Amino acid sequence: MNFDRLRALCLSLPGTTENLQWEEELCFKVRGKIFAMVSLSSVPQRLVFKSDPEEFQELLEHEGVSPAPYVGRYKWIMLDSLDVLPGREVESRIRKSYAMVATKAKSSPSKAMKRKRKARPA
Fold it and tell me: What is the CA radius of gyration of the chain?
């Protein structure tokens, strides 16, 4: 899969936004939560996404696939390049990542709501 196709896929998912974070990471978000990131400064470009916990170990068996730095313990995967896995598989995994993050983002209260709750007297 190439960058343009990956970007088009991510932006086609409902409610997706993109922004540059940490100077070089293009982050794709739903409801303010990241579901995929592409490193723009690395050659080849690396891709990070949340994986299904049941498929995490299976993914790690592929050459060029590793736990993502800092978030691997939460079952996030890093592909050393966009072509480590076949395009259809990358697409399927990005859609799963989006679905998992969107579901979690929908069910968790926003940070602003949490602050309001803490500020209320008992």
Answer: 16
- Would you say the pTM of this structure is higher than 0.90? no
Q: Which residues are CB-contacts of 18 (< 8 A; sequence separation ≥ 6)?
A: 7, 10, 11, 26, 27, 28, 29
Is pLDDT at 112 greater than 50 in this prediction? no
Q: Is the dihedral of CA 109, 112, 117, 118 positive or negative?
A: positive
Higher-scoring residue by pLDDT: 72, 98:
98
Give all domains of the chain, ordered by start, each with its CATH number: 3-119 (3.90.1150.30)
Contacts of 109 by beta carbon, 8 Å cutoff, 6+ apart: 117
Considering the chain, what is the average pLDDT of its residues? 87
